[in-house]
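Researcher: I need the complex structure. Ligand is iron/sulfur cluster. Inputs:
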Amino acid sequence: MTENPTTLGTPGNGNGRTRMLTINPVTRIEGHGKVTILMDERNEVTAARLHIIEFRGFERFILGRPYWELPVIVQRLCGICPVSHHLAAAKAMDRIVGGEQLTPTAEKIRRLMHFGQIFQSHALHFFHLASPDLLFGTDGTATSAFGAPAAQRNVLGVAAKYPELAVQGVMMRKFGQEVIQATAGKKIHGTGAIPGGVNKNLSLTERDALLQDVPQMLTWARSAVQIARDFTLEHLVELLPFGSFDSHHFSIVRPEDGALELYDGVLRAVDRDGHHLVNGVDCQRYLEVVGEEVRAWSYMKFPFLRSLGPEKGWYRVGPLARLNTCAFIPTPEAEAARQEFLGLTHGKPNNITLCYHWARMIELLHAIEGIRDLLADPDLQGTDLVAQGPRREEAVGVVEAPRGTLFHHYRVNRHDEVTLCNLIVSTTHNNEPMNRAVTKVARDHFTGKTEITEGLLNHIEVAIRAYDPCLSCATHAMGRMALRVEVVDPQGNVLSARQSE
Amino acid sequence: MPTALKPRVATTSLCGCFGCHMSILDLDERILKLAELVEFDRSPINDYKEFQGRCAIGLIEGGCCNEENVHVLEDFRRHCDVLVALGDCAISGGIPAMRNHLPVGETLEHAYVKAPGVWNPGGIIPNDPALPLLLNRVYPCHEVVKIDYFLPGCPPSADAIWDTVVALLTSQPLTLAYERLKYD
Ligand code: SF4
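Model: Output:
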């Protein structure tokens, strides 16, 4: 080490106390997500926590930067869904430059980019990350599948056993990335969206290249819905209770009719019976709706609905939540799939955690239907790309990222400098639910045990993985996190610790 | 199952956004081809969390922002013959290093106490022992261990990654075509 980095501790509990130490090569666990489980004298689980251990400080270091940099800088929070950050920041900047009434070309290019992102991200999660858990249930029970040998539980393991499926996953993700490249200029960290519009349209050559692949993608998306559906229905008995609990659900929806909407809309929250808790609220007023609680043991905050308070106001976001909040999906095949999905819970919100996968594949189908419809629209070849109007000082941009609602909130002074930045990323909304899922699985499977097997450990990961946590935004591991599980007695002694693999 | 003969490749994401790993996945069909040439060791895209054996190549995304990043990077240096700093964050600290001109405490206070919408009556700043300590600044990888190759880009394109890995595996000199050398 050419320089010995000093470590600054996190200041203590608000009174400015600082822990200070120098790094020695101490052997430490490798892990971005960490789970601790507290058990009492009777070996009952009293608490279980998912700690998020990464902190970057974007909200502070972005201050003073010129506003036009935001859409390209802030997406560097997350290379897994950069388009979501790119668009949320651009949408906020649209309002800053008074250009929120986008030209038809600009709006459609951005929507296409966003559908490309949803498509690639959902394909990535399902095929590359989650499918090993779902596929290797050789004895036919889902929960036993979660304990398949670790060496097999990766996309190459899938490729060895189900080569066709792995190739489909790879090619679907590739197609989504190509849609992004055609609209944003680059597959990762593109530059397409700028304050008030976009910097390019879609050429006919680009359009035709994409159109060629659409029929194949549609076929594969349909079969992906089928796989997720069959998996769910076949394993329903085990899946029903697995990390499941009733909750509220939150997303944006289309203002006029409550349709599923991923690029722009108004806020809606429903309770476990489907009653509206929040409805039709303009996202500019998000702070009236959502608060964020800080807890000492995680860098990720805990959002809640202000009307219900931090205790009762927590909710879920993402594909499952969106299918629960929306009135319908505005593309026919995905809507038909949603109807069948709803049938499982008799039209009530679906609270089964592992149904996230099925919901995600229904959205994948919606995304490719949306891409197909947009590609047919001649507005994409328009040349009117940027709108402008009276300047504003403050703005909120919202999109439904693949994993849920994403808020970007900025203030910009008259020297074009950013003076305030507040971000609520999708995975953060699911913080409390993921912790509850971990607690539920721990209670159901660990109670009375001091010894934890590898298979049990993967149960915890499976519950977390259902949420497709984009740990890059909050940490930087991918769906397959390095998890360390510790069982601690009431005195804080570690009874048993286990590192996944 | 680990085969002794194939060279092993390990990857890690330190203080990066995972975009460089996504660029590895952008190899698309070639990732399956790569899997024939090499054995993947420890990487966030599989379930190995510890090194399984001596590695020919370690691909590092991201700089070091906390003590754990430093330990992981040192571990990679110990286990890999060649280390490649993959992307701008690994090479220079990248966007996360924009915090380097600020005291760490200030960035934390900003996020957890001052941010709009925060509900934090106790003025808590996360400080649980479970959370690794932050470094005073974000360090580029070469300030922590010796790095053998630097591949610029944010992220480097899949083609650039492919050319690099293939050159290393075949012991050829690495020459990147002009259009593959990008700093954005
Ligand atoms: S270099 Fe760019 S793509 Fe790679 S981790 Fe850093 S910000 Fe992400």
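Model: Summary of the prediction. The two ends of chain A are 29 Å apart (CA to CA).
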